[in-house]
Amino acid sequence: MVRALIHVPSTAKSGEVIEIKTLISHVMETGYRIGVTGAPIPRDIIDQFVCTYNGEEIFRAQLFPAIAANPFISFFTVATASGTLTFSWTDQHGATQVQTAEIKVE
Amino acid sequence: MTTLAAFLMRFAALVTVFLVAGRVFAVEIPLNERRSDSEFISADTRAMQNDDAANPGMLSVADGEALWNAKAGTTNKSCADCHGDATAGMKGVAARYPAVIPAQSRPVDLEQRINMSRVADQKAAALPFESKELLALTAYIGRQSRGMPIAVKEDAQSKKFIAAGRAIFERRQGQLELSCAQCHDDNWGKKLAGNLVPQAQPTGYPIYRLEWQELGSLQRRLRSCMSAMRAEPYDFGAPALVDLEFFLMWRARGMAVETPAVRP
Amino acid sequence: MPQKTRQSRRDVLKMAGAFAGCGGLTLLAVRPAAATPAMMQEAVRNAIGEATVNKGKVKLDLPPIVENGNSVPCTVSVDSAMTANDYVKAIHIFNEKNPQPNVISVRLSPRAGRAAFSTRIRLADSQTVTAMAELSDGTFWSGDIDVIVTLAACIEEVKP
């Protein structure tokens, strides 16, 4: 598990468009850098990010090496009902990290 | 032509201007003209720094909080077990470092002070300089001083170390025979190859530096600047480096702590 | 002594920029294949097929002068009501000078409320960055922006 920070408003009005900000610790090694030995440092990136809201997908992103280290992604969603937002980051090796946040919708 | 030669050619041309036009003695920046390095970065970088949801340094602060609460060493105690909640117990601490430690009769910086506690009080291994863990703890403790004025004082004990640090800051060094003061006291606000020269006020360390793509300490920044000046950098933890840190933090006294800052 | 091809100073600085932008420096005259216009076109075709792309509706926000190519804040927003019948299905960002032309591909639904997102990207050199949007009515729209990437004054080596 690596550190991820998620910012979701804890409460929102029904129908309100809210902004969600996510940040995760990851080197996002491009595979193009030459190391001190003279050999390229192998690529190691997160290549998939998905957010679901009470089980329904609301955002999906395919990331490439051009995404900066410690990926920051912010996006929007309509606050529909109280419940759980689930965030998954998957790296190129298939390893997935999942984190959740609760939201109360009035 | 190698990239190094290209860089040296460009840098030497700029330095020639400094050497010809620069003052013989560096003039200290008047206290009320001091400005944070945050004012010399782009608006976008500043916005990144000021948004805790976007500032990558906050990832390390969160790691530091976990470490603060983690048991360590043969004592199996966490920092919290003795110091309590850091948001209360560590308020203002980072703003006071480096400081002269009576037991050592020498200044230590915050990183060294953390390790002193780890070894003596937790009976745990010291964390290596620039390790992820030491940076996280330093960032977490530094964050508890955010907004507070830097409180490094000059007194009978610290005077000679601050003077030693100042001497390093003002001394010409390396292949380019440049001193820190020539850029950061005499030419701050001017451009060096597309970047603005800041005053080099270390208000936000450890910083998330975009060039490093990670968090790093003031010692790392000083070492890399010395390399860039084509001078031999001091080792991590070397007394000369701590003296220089001490002088720089004293030079920034009264300015607000910004940890964790974001820099280009 | 192996014969070295004479390189102009501009080429050397461009290479240094490519590496500085991608987060590292080599002192050897080696560089990875940069994206060519053909590679970018292929990446676009892979993402959106053979559809015609209209200019408009898509706004790309990047700083016109980039302080450090390792991390460039990037916001895309598409003019769309985001209703059940009229929404943005996908947004793709491409670049022309990094070793690889794709940057990010995003899938949206009417649940988004707003067809916009922000991230931070790497740019190896001064170049044009392009964003393309696929709408629910099957049309494609694009917007682009020219960005200048400055070299850092003090180049450091990759941390061992």
CATH class of chain A: Mainly Beta
Shape of chain B: globular
Number of helices in the DSSP assignment of chain B: 11
Strands in their spatial order, largest beta sheet of chain B: 6-5-7
In round numbers, the mean pLDDT of chain A is: 97
Helical percentage of chain A: under 10%
Low-confidence stretches of chain A: none
CATH level-1 class of the largest domain in chain B: Mainly Alpha
At CATH level 2, the architecture of chain A is Sandwich
Q: In percent, how helical is the residue content of chain B?
A: 40-55%
| Sheet with the most strands, sense and barrel status of chain A | 5 strands, mixed
Distance between the termini of chain B: 27 Å
> Gap between N and C termini of chain A, in Å?
33 Å
Describe this structure in words.
The complex is a heterotrimer of chains A (106), B (264) and C (160). Chain A is mainly beta. The radius of gyration of chain A is 16 Å and the shape is elongated. Chain A contains no helices and eight strands. Helix content of chain A is 0%, strand content 53%. Chain B is mainly alpha-helical and 264 residues long. Chain B is built from eleven helices and seven strands. Chain B starts with a helix and ends with a strand. The two termini of chain C are 29 Å apart. Chain C contains two helices and nine strands. In chain C, a hairpin with a 4-residue loop joins β8 and β9. The longest helix of chain C has 13 residues, at 9-21. The model of chain C is unreliable at 1-31 (pLDDT under 50). Chain C has one domain: Immunoglobulin-like (Sandwich), CATH 2.60.40. Chain C is globular and about 50 Å long. By secondary structure, chain C is α+β, with helices and mostly antiparallel strands. The chains are: A mainly beta (106), B mainly alpha (264), C alpha+beta (160). The A-C interface holds A 17-18, 30, 32-36, 38, 41, 53, 56-69, 71-78, 80 and C 19, 22-24, 26, 28, 30, 32, 70-72, 95, 98-100, 102-109, 111-114, 116-123, 157-158, 160.
